[in-house]
Design goal:
about 90% helix; about 70 residues; mainly alpha; single chain; elongated; 2 helices
């Protein structure tokens, strides 16, 4: 994994820990806390999937650009 990938993974992990701790220390009933944690988990999973897909799109764009440059060079 490259440097940027490690940074993004660490950032995502930090966000997850922060969200969980924020919900756990918020006053409220256990059932409400579990519901909030479930909702936050879904949101975070959706965000990660979205960012992953955007990253893959960008990677494919770079790959196509390099492919075109190589064809021009050859």
């Amino acid at each position: 994994m490259n440097k940027n990938g490690k940074i993004l993974a660490a950032l995502a992990a930090g966000m997850a820990v922060g969200a969980v701790l924020g919900v756990l220390f918020a006053p409220g009933k256990g059932s409400e806390t579990r519901k909030k944690m479930k909702e936050e988990g879904r949101k975070m999973a959706d965000d990660v999937k979205d960012k992953f897909n955007k990253g893959m799109e960008k990677l494919n764009e770079v790959k196509e650009g390099l492919k075109e440059k190589m064809e021009e060079f050859a």
